[in-house]
Amino acid sequence: MIWRLVRRGVFAVVSAYIVMTAAFAVIAFTNDPNVGQVAWEASNTGRNITEAVQAYREARNLNDPIFQRWVSWLVGITTGDWGLSYSTGQPVLDVIWSRMKYTLFYLVPSVFVATVMGISFGLFSAFRQHSFSDRIVTAAAYLGLGIPNFWLATVLFSAAVAQHQIIAFPELPITSAALYSFDFTLLYGFIPWLDPNTTQGFFVLPVITLTTALLAGQLRYTRSESLEYIDMEFVKIARAKGAGPFRVARHVLRNAAIPLLSLFLTEMLSVLVLGVLVIEEVFNIPGFGSLMLQAVGARDMPLIIGVTMVVAFIGIVGNFLQDVAYTVLDPRVGSETD
């Protein structure tokens, strides 16, 4: 088992460097879109266009041999030097982290709530197959799958903020200090309770939007995978020994966990990448999704490559964690090659 994890870890590292090399190739073998902008500005200011372009290339080491640039690129990415953003003049990693804090504030609760509720209601529905409650849960899942993220986000914003003002729109610009400053009050005089500020209350809407998309898929996957194990012998034996519904559900979930992990990871990555773009555009959140759109709009190549690599690295790390979970849940996975 240990050697399998070591091999998968090495594979993850190699995959990361392949991604870095591919990102470098995009930069090295395509025309820099900002060269035209430099030439246009030089012509408008009366400077020599050729000299301005050469100065631009020298400042970014674009005239160095390609192998030297590739080695410098790999060393820089490995040591945390991802270059400077053209549009902000700040280090790319600093720009990404400053925006990622806003995305994580609604992303982490959404994933947690969707996972817990999806697994719980999926098992509940599977153990009550063809019952009225099963039909209700299934219909809710199909409804969640059928509602477009952009439509739900727009409706929630229009109804709760713009029209009825149930939730107040926070002061702009939204700051991370307002998000991560938590105040507590005593409910009924003795129960500690979070007292959210205006900004934190506003982020309930993105959480609802993203949770709806994730919950529907996880619920359906959990139900379908659990149904494959409910009538198997180990379940019948557990019931014959007097195991309660929670214990039986735990046995079913443990066996269904491996295929569920693959489905969850694939579904989650696709929903998250597309979902954050929609959510942050509708709710005007200065997070990672809006940063991707701004980088493309500004033709900021270092920032575009940076956000692309972050998404790729998340996929690589997620795949590695999936392999670790496989090995922990079922040590027989890959044992024939150990």
UniProtKB/TrEMBL annotation:
Q: Which GO terms describe its biological process?
A: transmembrane transport
Question: What topology in the membrane does the UniProt record assign?
Answer: Multi-pass membrane protein
Q: Where is the ABC transmembrane type-1 domain?
A: 100-322
Q: Which residues cross the membrane?
A: 9-30, 104-127, 139-162, 174-194, 256-279, 300-321
Q: What's the superkingdom here?
A: Archaea
What keyword terms does UniProt attach to this protein?
Cell membrane, Membrane, Transmembrane, Transmembrane helix, Transport
Q: Does the keyword Transport apply?
A: yes
InterPro entries reported for this sequence: MetI-like (IPR000515), MetI-like_sf (IPR035906)
Instruction: Write the protein's name.
Output: Peptide/nickel transport system permease protein
Q: Which organism is it from?
A: Haloarchaeobius iranensis
Lineage, uppermost ranks: Archaea, Methanobacteriati, Methanobacteriota, Stenosarchaea group, Halobacteria
